[in-house]
């Protein structure tokens, strides 16, 4: 088995959720049947959205240090359950010699798999993720049209995300309402493109398919750890060109 | 804040439970208000009980490697949410220059705090933990009398622990029944002295106070991380004599 490296803490509850999914996805087994996992809950990384919108310090040095700790500790590859942190993916990839998965690409691959015919795709994500266009570019390359919430709705999404980060786990009306505005705008699927959102959105109440970036990353991570997939099998865009042959 | 090191994976669900308690104990806050945590889910460590009862390989080298990874990664101290692994505590302490907390001593301190007048204390733990007498010595030093389940009941406790490790989270009748046999033998409190047991015992159904070793370790860990406690403030027995002054 490969040793999983997880750069987390953005936020801690989302990291807990991600690790729980790795355990649940494996299903029954003894301790030893679970892949080893080194998890760096690096909670002191400066807020990603604040930097992207120009009101906070650059998180790049802390993110780079975070992945270097994982490589030094024996991780064979790295997953980062924070969509917004992927704005800094290239800097992290350059800092280590092991593959760093691309959660955004994993989520868009799940969109293509789960809702191949949906053209307009709504995105629930941080303002940082939306500002950088992380999802927009890949969705357009896949032939889809990304839909963002209107400004006032996006402000309420950020309020909900901060509330979840502050410990308020459970359905948040602001997320459901904003998802419905995206459906009203024509979205035929919704991406949960922030790792706090699955902790605050009751997807059963929405009339469209919801694609969960956390789950897409967890599935990819476990398949690589169990060596069901080689790094070469991972869809294009998930890994840097320099990733090791396996 | 101090960086927490967690040597986990024994098993993964118990580690998830422990990390969740650290998050819950802190309560509301932004990402940055949570202490950083490096978590080594070292699932490949050979089974502790199997070694103690003489039917499996020695886990000491893997445990020592596990704590060394945490020290090298920047942890300021280490918590190990696996009671049975504490049979190897001295070897782990000797391998690193940072404090390694003693979960057993933390649990016995919680017994003294929560049920100061209870003389007979029942222990639900692995056969490995019971065989090594980890709890017995400290309980007797505290003036209590440890009670172990009878052999057939202990076999059913191990079945329940393996079932929980295999993913069957939720009340397990075997644990409740064995806890009741300890009460019938005179126990006025029960220690959940294995990190799987809180995942399978409905403590509300027992007529005596239940002390949870996982919670005792989590409280100690968070207080140290938040620098509410110095290493010198930790009760005697929780730290090696060589622990750093703070």
Spell out the key features of this protein.
246 residues; three-stranded parallel β-sheet; Rossmann fold; globular; alpha/beta; 10 helices; four-stranded parallel β-sheet; disordered C terminus; 7 strands; homodimer
Polypeptide structure, described:
Two copies of one chain form a homodimer. By secondary structure, chain A is of the alpha/beta class. Chain A has two domains: 4-103 and 215-233, Rossmann fold (3-Layer(aba) Sandwich); 104-213, Rossmann fold (3-Layer(aba) Sandwich), CATH 3.40.50. Helices cover 43% and strands 12% of the residues of chain A. Chain A contains ten helices and seven strands. Chain A has helices at 12-26, 48-52, 60-72, 89-95, 103-114, 127-132, 134-141, 151-165, 173-184, 213-225; strands at 4-8, 37-41, 77-79, 120-124, 145-147, 189-192, 209-212. In chain A, the strands form two sheets. A four-stranded parallel sheet of chain A has the order 5-4-6-7, sandwiched between helices. In chain A, strands 2-1-3 form a three-stranded parallel sheet, with helices on both faces. In chain A, strand 1 (4-8), helix 1 and strand 2 form a beta-alpha-beta unit. The longest helix of chain A has 15 residues, at 12-26. Chain A starts with a strand and ends in a 21-residue tail after the last helix. Mean pLDDT of chain A is 94; it is low at 241-246. Chain A binds chain B through residues 1, 9-13, 16, 19-20, 22-24, 27-45, 47, 69, 72-74, 162, 165-168, and chain B through 1, 9-13, 16, 19-20, 22-24, 27-45, 47, 69, 72-74, 162, 165-168. Strand 2 (37-41) of chain A pairs antiparallel with strand 2 (37-41) of chain B, so a sheet runs across the interface.
């Amino acid at each position: 088995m490969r040793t999983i490296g997880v750069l987390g803490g953005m936020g801690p509850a989302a990291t807990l959720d991600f690790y729980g999914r790795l355990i649940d996805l494996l299903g029954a087994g003894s301790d030893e049947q679970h892949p080893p996992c080194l998890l760096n809950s690096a909670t002191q990384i400066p807020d990603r959205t604040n930097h992207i919108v120009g009101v906070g310090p650059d998180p790049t040095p802390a993110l780079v240090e975070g992945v270097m700790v994982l490589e030094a500790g024996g991780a064979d590859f790295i997953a980062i359950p924070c969509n917004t942190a992927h704005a800094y993916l290239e800097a992290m990839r350059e800092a280590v010699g092991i593959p760093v998965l691309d959660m955004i690409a994993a989520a868009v691959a799940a969109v293509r798999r789960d809702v191949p015919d949906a053209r307009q795709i709504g995105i629930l994500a941080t303002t940082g993720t939306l500002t950088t266009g992380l999802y927009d570019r890949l969705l357009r390359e896949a032939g889809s049209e990304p839909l963002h919430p209107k400004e006032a709705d996006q402000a309420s999404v950020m309020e909900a995300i901060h509330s979840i980060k502050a410990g308020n786990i459970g359905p948040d009306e602001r997320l459901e309402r904003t998802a419905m505005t995206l459906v009203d705008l024509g979205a035929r699927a919704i991406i949960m493109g922030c790792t706090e959102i699955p902790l605050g959105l009751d997807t059963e109440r929405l009339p469209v398919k919801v694609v969960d970036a956390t789950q897409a990353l967890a599935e990819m991570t476990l398949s690589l750890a169990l060596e069901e997939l080689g790094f070469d099998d991972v869809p294009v865009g998930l890994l840097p060109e320099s990733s090791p042959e396996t």
